[in-house]
Amino acid sequence: MKQPPTFSLTLQVADLAQALNGTGAHSAQAHWLIFDVSHDLTNGAWGREQYELAHIASARYVDLHTDLSAHDGQPAINGGRHPLPTREHFAHWMAHQGITPDTQVVVYDRNGMNFCARLWWMLQWCGHHKVAVLNGGLKAWQESGGALDGGPGVQRAPKASGLDAIEPYELGPPLVQLRDLHFVLEHLDARDQTLIDARATPRYLGLQEPLDPIAGHIPGALNRPFVENFDAQGYFKPAAQLKAEFETLLAGRDPQSVVHHCGSGVSAIPNILAMTLAGLGPSALYAGSWSEWSRTPGLPVQTPQA
Questions:
Q1: pLDDT at residue 6 tops 90
Q2: Closest Cα partner for 18 from 8, 1, 35, 32?
Q3: Which superfamily, per CATH, for 10-149?
Q4: Which residues does the annotation mark as catalytic?
Q5: In this structure, what are the phi and psi dihedrals at residue 102, rounded to the nearest 5 degrees?
Q6: What is the pLDDT of residues 48-72, one digit of tens each?
Q7: Which of 93, 142, 155, 241 is the most buried (most CB within 10 A)?
């Protein structure tokens, strides 16, 4: 039997519709799972509330805090507001969802493909190749007339706690690159590291800081707000345009030297996706990002006054 195509970056709504309808080459009896990762940093209940109002039929809700971050004393591999759990812990969560190496995972949100990219990255980090971001998110699905579900009693992804009794997903070599605080600090002035900060420019410049204790940015970091990767309709820009924009930003620096970061390691990931779509990847993630850096005593900070 001819194998169905694998989606590991982005997926168009028409392809998802074919898979859910069992038509076209995209179904081919493959195992698909869809996850809604909508979130609001200032209102933790918002994502679930919106999911319960309306979501793609058969999608499960995933919470950034309880499913995709270490919490309540769980082992974490970095600091900051949304620390990554260990790969071993997350492998239990994956298995509890029914994710196997043959599962095609699709992730989406209502936030400009921001929070869902976190789940995309974490699955790739655990060695799961078949995961794609729905290009355009829920808005694109709704505009295409895609089927929605909602109301009380809808299916939810189980929380990432209490899963130790489950046989975990078999981890593979990471398919994405991770950098920690010590690496970033040691390479701060080196030619083999180019930092790109995905936060909005006012936060990068230190003109405002609504979430973390210190305003400013890591010295030497360039700024590319993650929203610059999308067109006016909310889709990723064409690969050639993304490539030209990143090359302008890098100004001759090696794309392979790029380490992305943001406030807490979440909104940096659309930049990673964009560089990969542009053919400039792979590039790395500093997951602790500004929220870890700004909470670590003695580290240098660049502000308008510095």
A1: no
A2: 32
A3: Rhodanese-like domain (3.40.250.10)
A4: 262
A5: -90, -5
A6: 999 999 999 999 999 999 999 999 9
A7: 93
Q: pLDDT tens across 157-178, in order?
A: 555 445 555 789 999 999 999 9
Domain regions of the chain by residue span: 10-149, 177-293
Please give the Cα distance from 60 to 182 (Å, whole number): 36
Residue 303 CA: distances (Å) to CA of 10, 189, 209, 216, 219 = 36, 17, 11, 5, 9
CB 167 within 8 A of CB 97: no
Asked whether 129 and 6 are in contact (CB, 8 A), the reply is yes
Write down the CATH superfamily of domain 177-293: Rhodanese-like domain (3.40.250.10)
- Whether the predicted pLDDT of 114 surpasses 90: yes
Q: Do domains 10-149 and 177-293 have the same CATH topology?
A: yes
- 266 closest CA partner among 76, 36, 41: 41
What average pLDDT score do residues 147-154 get? 71
